[in-house]
Amino acid sequence: MTLVQAQRAGAAGRGSRLAGVADPRALEFRLWLGTLPLAFLGCVAAAAPRTDFRAAFLPVATPLGLLLAAALAVHLLFRLIHFRGDPLILPILTVLLIMGAVYHAGLFRAGAPGGSLGPYLRAGLVALGTVGAVVGLTPLYRRLSYWVEERLWWRIAGAVPYYESIPFLLGLGLLMVVLILWLLVRGRPAGLSGAIIQAPLLGGWTFTPSEFVRLAVAFFLADYLGRNSKILRNLRQPLGRRWPLSLLTIEHAVTLSILLAVVALYCLFFFAFRDYGPAVIIYGLAIICLYAATGRWPTPAALVLLGALLAVLPTLKGGGGTLTNRLMMWWNPWDTGFLNGDHQVRILWAITGGGWLGMPAETGVARQLPEAATDAAFAGLVARHGLWVGAAVLFLFALLAARGLSIARAASTDRARLLALSLTLLILLQVVWICGAMVRAFPFSGINLPFISTGTSNALACAIALGALLNLSRGNATVFDPGEATPEVERGVRRLGKPLLALYLVPLGGLALLAPPVFGDAILVRRARAMGQDKEIILFRNPYLEAFVRGLPRGRLYSADGELLAVSNPGPDDYARIRESNPDFEPRLRRLAARGLRAYPLGELAAQLVGWTTGGQYAPREGSIETACDSLLRGYRDAELPYLFRTRLNPFARKPRPADLETTIDAALQRQARQLLRQAALTSSGTGGAVVLLEADTGRVLAAATSPSFDPNELSVSRMRRYLKEHRRTGILTNKALDREARYPPGSTFKILTLAAALPALPEGTVTCAGHNTSPIRWEYRGRRYQRPARRISCYGGAAHGSLSLGSDYGQALTRSCNVFFATLAAATGVDRLRETLRQAELGQLPAPDRLADFLPEAGFGQVVVSVSPLEMAMVAGAIGMAVPAFGESAPAARPYWLNTTLMSGERSRPAGVYGAPDERPYRPFPDEIARRVREGMLAVVNDPSGTAYGAFHPGGSLALPGVVVGGKTGTAEFEKESRDSRGRRRRVKGRHAWFVGFARNDRDVQPKTLAIAVLVEDVGRGATGGSTCAPVARELFRAAFAPWQPPAPADQPPAPVRPPWWREWLQRLFQ
Length: 1072
Hints:
- By secondary structure, the protein is an alpha+beta fold.
- Among the domains are: about 5-240 and about 245-520, no CATH class; about 745-865, Beta-lactamase (3-Layer(aba) Sandwich), CATH 3.40.710.10.
- It contains 42 helices and 27 strands.
- The strands form ten sheets. Strands 11-10-14-22-23 form a five-stranded mixed beta sheet. Strands 16-15-27-26-25 form a five-stranded antiparallel beta sheet. Strands 7-8-9 form a three-stranded mixed beta sheet.
- β15 (about 690-695) and β16 (about 700-705) form a beta hairpin.
- It is elongated and about 115 Å long.
- About 45% of the residues are buried.
């Protein structure tokens, strides 16, 4: 068939070519008519939120007008040359470009007005100009094809055996350009953009060869498969009539091998450069075109399985790298352990945050969304303009693909059909893959969304593909010999029509699943873990929700005695409170209020307890009231947050009102606890510590101090960075008093738990302590025998405690804190009973059974494998202190809380569901009889002259707290720390923490209350112990907490007179 015959055949099939649309010309008119209001509404949407609407409208309208004018000019050109091809492709392209221009105008409008439209405007004009040039210069192509075919081709036919090799050589040349560019820029700071190599050109343009390599591969596949489709359809030849087997002939094997080798060359090249987007497109293009050319599915299916296996093989082998990270980010985006692992989550947050109507530009889509102008442009479009705009974009691309497939079905030759199919797939696969990656249907990869993303090279390559499709739609099958047409290829192309269009249901279904009524609200409020810039795992929250929540006013925080703990926008009553309780802070409060900052009047006294702000970001520390009660203070419930976020611009929707929160903290006790803790750390050469004081019978936490501390007022970024650096060394940001994640070895204070585990079945025998164990300690667990040889376990200071009976002398051993006794007692008690006691005490971290069995004697006196928090030890001490000897069962202890009541619109309520809220469940870790016997031992520790805390509570031999019953346990816990010797070399040395846990009860009150306390001083110096360092802190806090005892008034004392109302006094004086 000659060129003229092919053109006539194409003209004859022009009617069937447009069968996909009933009236293409009418739809073309509607699309062109819709571009004008679309462009106008886009200008209004991009400029309306600005203050000066007129000044903002023109910079946005001018680029849109240029795009529309260029599209109309190309349309007039088509009319002048009597273009009779597909009438819908150009209007669809124009609508997509207008939507992209509106998106980019609103995306970066925080900069110079209209300046951010420059790169996208250039790409759009290049796309329209390319389409016009490819179609308008067709007569020149015809003359050029005749000259090449008749005059030139015979000269180079010997050097290039198949002219379909020209696209392959062109793509290979582009790969060489990529390699040369990489060699030129290797080792330089600029020149490589991630995994994509770009060459800077004049005027700020960048040339990306990978975009044109894909285009060259599309032409190569069409030419190669069109010429060799018959061979590829009959790969196997039978051996004979009697032999059912068949083998590949040499010709067939060579034909298939050449195709696979070319595709593998391109894919492996891009894989080597970690540019997986072009590799995915080329591989998918080859598989689909191979099926269309052969009509057989086994080979393409095998290639699909092979590609999937090669993609996941590095992950299955446990290797790292960019590909593995992207697959892991796709599989579980909510918990990644590598840098920039939050990209997928941020994309999902942007789409769900956009909802139906989108988000304004002030929410910072350009800042919070990675690659918002290029790879993630679809997610940014949905975030800015809503889910319906994303669905409209997918519909336009589906309509474009339908036109391309219609052109492929109506083509007159095999190569024309395959060329139209490959050019359509070139755009279809990009759209489906990157839009599917935005909704987590596919792994994220560096692929631009055609005509929406900023990228001149991508726009130019896709425009060339559209121009070629337009030429094919009017009968220009190919430049050279058009070849022949076979029904197998036509049937293969027709079979692919509906399945390929169904691929658009993948991203469309993803958008439907991310809609607010389905999974959108759940994803909107979900948090994610990823590695931060400092290579530490950070808990991320939706930045759009963060920005919305930061704009909500916060209520006040009060102490139990009425002092302000935190306040924003203070009023006259707040200044009056400050003048009464902390007058020195008033000038600073006025300065903070003038700057719009939240104030913390107690400063460093309660920084870790209350929380802090820095740049509007609230402290992500469990135990901080500001963080735990964020929703309470702002006046909303967590379940209402998605609704409030989506209706934030609705003036008729309900708005949250801030609530005030009253805590159980006593400001006077908090000041004294902080002062005593700091003084204890200084005198003992300690580095810090924690104090928690609570009422065991009610659960109210009265004081929770942490050292070292800092001033949370006026935190700057530089100060916060310094504190973060110091936090790695001293834990300055952690609420050590109330955070159960702040764990320490308990030392001898753990002996009360060991004793509680052993008391139900005390073993027999005696222990001889000569400052160390004189005989081996043996125990057994799960059939395995363990042993500690003699002299391995020693008591503090080498103190010898003599012979002690395991069944009766436990009180004396607890009073004198004998390590040898409790190591032996723990070994006799066993792993299971000790773990069960720790579980009943509700310790946050239980040692593993095998690990506990290895170090069971050491665990008996609180070393090696056990760790506790100060709050847990105060709870245990409070439960033991409540076991008062009396008839019947004693009252259980209450669980600690420090959030008392909330005040909103004059109504008081108890907070619930947040860390630190009241918990009505009783806390009874031990049976009553066991707790009473442990209580007797703790009383002896304080009141027996041989007790380790006797000196602190009986200074000079006199009782320090008359009328108050005090019990407790001291402890000194060893731990390993890193130090440096005189030469600066790192080494591991032992340090010590000092402990005191105890209770106090004032039985002479009408309603006696029981206090519990835990005091910890970290890394004390030589000679400092729990009895000398921590017990005095507890004594002074008990003294301050119990008011001086006053005898009750006699029963016959007359009541105080009640003053009558003022109006009654006024009437009495009037009528006297």
